[in-house]
Automatic annotation (TrEMBL):
InterPro entries: Phytol/farnesol_kinase. Belongs to the polyprenol kinase family. One of its GO terms (cellular component) is chloroplast membrane. The chain crosses the membrane at residues 88-106, 126-142, 148-171, 248-266, 278-295. This is Phytol kinase. It is a multi-pass membrane protein. It is found in: Plastid, Chloroplast membrane. GO terms for molecular function: kinase activity. The keyword Transcription does not apply.
Length: 322
């Protein structure tokens, strides 16, 4: 509770959560009328654009000297990167761009799987590690609020439908099966890959980019769980006593990589003003990463699937520590 309160005191928009500012009643200093007045002070400008950010910063500070640079960046970052004057068009454009970006990465791995460039299990883990993180890189392209979150979630949502169709045998796609399955069985896709896509979609809709819970869930699932398998297979000679299928090297790699990548995305999103970096948040990421590694090493994860247990741990524990 103390951790959340201290962070909320720093965050310029937040009351006691990391929810997106547009999910709550907006600050009176950031109404449409206020921004219209601020924008009109900029010569030859009818709308607030990224090119006029410095002029907008000066105008807002001149109107209200109590507004700091971080608050200004948060306000400017409220709209989509593309077509900020039309949020819906901008979000659709961001969705197309993000979808093509993620699809191009997936196509590369499908081609490497078809050509046998990597071992099938390694190829699968490379897909597992990169796709979710690449998609999260595109979140700043979307607008803040419910609209941007839902439109962004359509990208993993489409993948959920694809995975279900392939996993149920309705759609034949050998390249996708080879790149996502352990043993080349299409029915595997309705377990791990389905949980994976669902985690990313739910992180987008429920938590979005102003919540460290979304960062923790996706980073521990993608970077943590992905590198745990890769490192464990190569250096995991010493097995964990309570689970001979897991190694100390793999679990340490999972905790370390999940934590480090979480810090990277914390800094990345803080540059856009979505939240403030803090030592409390860093400690929270460390706790969640260690707990996720412990759960992943437990036999219960082998029984129910890592892609299910790791996100559930991140969501639950993240709610307590952030």
């Amino acid at each position: 509770m103390t951790m959340a309160s201290s962070l909320c005191a720093i965050h310029p928009f937040s009351s006691c959560s990391f929810r997106d500012p547009r999910f709550r009643q907006s600050d009176s200093r950031f109404t449409a009328t206020y921004f219209t007045f601020a924008s009109s002070a900029i010569p030859n400008s009818s709308s607030t654009t990224l090119n006029g950010r410095s002029s907008l910063d000066f105008s807002i500070q001149k109107l209200n000297p109590n507004v700091g640079p971080r608050r200004i960046r948060s306000a400017v970052a409220a709209g989509p990167l593309f077509f900020p004057e039309n949020p819906l068009v901008g979000d659709i454009f961001a969705m197309v761009f993000s979808g093509c970006f993620a699809l191009s990465i997936l196509r590369i791995y499908e081609e490497t799987a078809r050509r046998g460039v990597f071992d099938q299990k390694l190829n699968r883990k490379l897909v597992h590690t990169t796709i979710g993180l690449a998609f999260m890189l595109c979140w700043p392209l979307f607008s803040s609020g419910r609209q941007g979150a839902v439109i962004a979630a359509l990208i993993p949502g489409v993948n959920i439908v694809k995975v279900l169709l392939i996993g149920l045998g309705i759609w034949k796609d050998e390249a996708t099966v080879k790149s996502m399955s352990r043993y080349g069985d299409y029915r595997e896709l309705i377990k791990g890959p389905l949980y994976y896509a669902s985690t990313i979609a739910l992180s987008s809709i429920i938590y979005w980019r102003t919540s460290p819970i979304a960062i923790a869930a996706i980073c521990n699932l993608c970077a943590g769980d992905g590198l745990a398998d890769i490192v464990g297979r190569r250096f995991g000679k010493k097995k964990i006593p309570y689970n001979k299928d897991k190694s100390f090297a793999g679990s340490i790699a999972m905790a370390a990589s999940g934590f480090i990548v979480s810090l990277g995305y914390m800094h990345y999103f803080s540059m856009f003003g979505y939240f403030e970096e803090s030592w409390e948040m860093i400690l929270g990421f460390l706790i969640v990463s260690i707990a996720s590694a412990l759960i992943e090493s437990h036999p219960i994860s082998t029984k129910f699937d890592d892609n299910l247990m790791v996100p559930l741990t991140s969501f639950f524990l993240g709610t307590l520590v952030f």
